[in-house]
Inverse folding.
């Protein structure tokens, strides 16, 4: 049986999603629990990996199991064994040829910053403190240049081994919060560090250190050195993984009505 | 010169306020920074101590210094040296015979719980997960019995060395939040563990395990064994320290208008 599991986790206590020999990881914690239940190693396959400190409001993984646990019991069985920074929201049985990385149809990421002259100890690890004044209009204008299909070579880690750097961005929204801004981006897929580099770039524009009207030029350059910064990991949340086109279109439709 | 400092801290990373030989404490972190600045040990005097895991939205301490830093520069000087789970909100100069523990006129504490069948990883260390259904009316009724002047022997740690256990409670309010409840209590002073024991008691009432109408009996018994539980520290916030009667009365007046 193949099971698909919907989870969330607070990234503050993890060295990222992917298993490592040293350090606590989301994959490591989950596989340890599955190994205990199965008395054998069980590999999990995530929708995507998140870096050290990065959070997930919604993430998926799947795994194969021959245990005779009814599907309705899996959520509770897993939750009761999980540490308090991982939560299991749903477990469903899926076709044994389903593979989340190949079958999912895009993702939404959120990046959260807060402002004010003094750091807020309760935002530690959850939002990034940004003290410079930001020009909302300039940021929104720059952000619209990324919507559509573009080669994002200028906005990914130069170390990225992936050859095709063309991705489609459906939306890139700026949302005012009680103490700052959230950046919400929905795309077909994202390159390594892409959201954190895009946010760092938009913040430079908002701060007035870079002219947002030159964004098409930066995209066209396909040169990572034009965008030297990467925003810190603790502001980043994997917010949704779209299992199919319908889920993604429904989310986009809802945003059209509210934003 | 004596300086009064208003701070907040996230208790999750501390073994409480008070200095200990082993383990990270709020006092230890602040005194380490003051020692570095003064090249000599500087003792700080807090409005009150908080236990391991307990937070402060507003806490005060004072210290004496002969450094020739203008009072307007102290906030920035301290903040830039603080770790990211302590924030300095204000530094004022006060009379050298002012002592916050003797001169302050009461405190407000908040206790935060959230509900729902699944734990929320983002509430870790910030709110306590409480899965039982709660009867709001029963809780509010029980809470009103504590308002006024009472001997709180039944609601403090049996180990407390303080002889006079009479305290005055001005208000004890239940506030609905987006995912649970906040308990807000304002009093002349609080005994060791008192807020956490009161909240544990009210939750037992709300869950239907104890009849809240018997509260006057429990108070009159002056017997800690009648209230066996203490709510966990991570839900507790020192919310305000009232420097004088006027501050406290203004806060009470404001609550009267909104609650």
């Amino acid at each position: 049986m193949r099971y698909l599991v919907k989870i969330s986790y607070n990234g503050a206590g993890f060295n990222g999603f992917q298993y490592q020999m040293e350090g606590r990881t989301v994959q490591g914690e989950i596989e340890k629990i599955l190994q205990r239940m199965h008395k054998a190693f069980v590999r999990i396959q995530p929708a995507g990996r998140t870096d050290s400190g990065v959070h997930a409001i919604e993430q998926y993984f799947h795994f194969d199991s021959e245990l005779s646990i009814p599907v309705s019991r899996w959520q509770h069985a897993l939750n009761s064994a999980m540490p308090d920074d991982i939560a299991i929201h749903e477990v469903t049985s899926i076709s044994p040829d389903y593979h989340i990385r190949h079958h999912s149809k895009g993702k939404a990421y959120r990046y959260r910053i807060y402002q004010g002259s003094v750091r807020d100890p309760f935002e530690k690890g959850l939002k990034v403190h940004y003290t410079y004044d930001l020009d909302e209009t300039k940021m929104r204008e720059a952000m619209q240049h990324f919507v559509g299909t573009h080669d994002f070579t200028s906005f990914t880690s130069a170390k990225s081994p992936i050859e095709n750097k063309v991705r489609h961005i459906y939306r890139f929204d700026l949302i005012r919060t009680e103490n700052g801004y959230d950046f919400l981006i929905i795309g077909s897929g994202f390159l390594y560090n892409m959201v954190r580099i895009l946010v760092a770039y938009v913040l430079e524009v908002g701060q007035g250190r870079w002219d947002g009207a030159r964004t098409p030029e930066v995209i066209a350059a396909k040169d990572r050195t034009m965008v030297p910064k990467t925003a810190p990991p603790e502001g980043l949340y994997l917010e949704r993984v779209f299992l199919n086109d319908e889920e993604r279109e429904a989310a986009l439709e809802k945003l059209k009505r509210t934003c």
Chain A has two domains: 2-102, 106-258. The interface with chain B takes residues 8-10, 55, 79, 84-89, 118-122, 124, 126 of chain A (CB under 8 Å).
